[in-house]
Amino acid sequence: MFERRTMKALLAMVLCLSLLTACAGKKAVSEDAAMSDADLLAQLAGRAWVAEYIDGLPVVDMSHTSMVFSTDGKVKGTGGCNSYSGGYTLENGRISFTPFATTMRSCVPALNDQEMRFFSFLNGKLIVKFKSGLLYLVSEEGKPSIFSELE
Fold first, then answer.
1. What is the rounded distance in angstroms from the CA atom of residue 30 to the CA atom of residue 59?
2. Residues 24 and 73 occupy one common structural domain
3. How confident is the model at residue 19 (pLDDT cuts 50, 70, 90)?
4. Are 69 and 109 found together in one domain?
5. Which of the listed residues 3, 42, 116, 137 has the most CB atoms within 10 Å of its CB?
6. Do 49 and 59 touch, CB atoms closer than 8 A?
7. Given this model, what pLDDT does residue 33 score?
8. How many structural domains are present in the chain?
9. Are residues 17 and 47 in the same domain?
10. Strand, helix or coil at 55?
11. CB neighbours of 109 closer than 8 A, spacing ≥ 6?
12. Based on the domain organization, do 45 and 97 belong to the same domain?
């Protein structure tokens, strides 16, 4: 009797591990697959993206540094203190931004530093990736800014 239960439990564990491995493998393939610019734009546009990390560093809690992309090449949001708007170009999986128009409010030092880091990070061409529902903008040095979708 003991051997029969042990054998059933062992078979159940092997089956569960096989299913988990198969599911994990499928997820990794879809996340790592290269996306076309049209697919990237479909994921970016019409959503509000809020920064979790900027240039590899975590953001100030509740700072709401955000980006909202439109399908016509415009972007707007808040740097954490000041509102901004501008344009972007998406080409070959890389995004670049035009200079931004921003408000000029005075910020507390921590938010001011983060906002300057955010705007500085957005200079240059950034690789656009999606992983586990998060937006990754990655610099040529490999440092990411990571955004979650605001719901």
1. 28
2. no
3. very low
4. yes
5. 137
6. no
7. 59
8. 2
9. no
10. coil
11. none
12. yes
pLDDT in tens, 87-118: 999 999 999 999 999 999 999 999 999 999 99
Give dist(CA 136, CA 145) in Å, integer: 6
Domain span including residue 20: 1-33
Residue keyed to tokens 């955004």: 147
43 and 28 together in one domain: no
pLDDT digits (tens, 9 = 90+) for 37-55: 999 999 999 999 999 999 9
Distances (CA, A) of 113 to 90, 116, 133, 145: 27, 5, 27, 15
Residue the block writes with tokens 């040095």: 141
By CB atoms closer than 10 A (0-12, 13-18, 19+), residue 49 is buried
Residues 26, 84 within the same domain: no
Quick count: other Cβ atoms within 10 Å of Cβ 81?
21
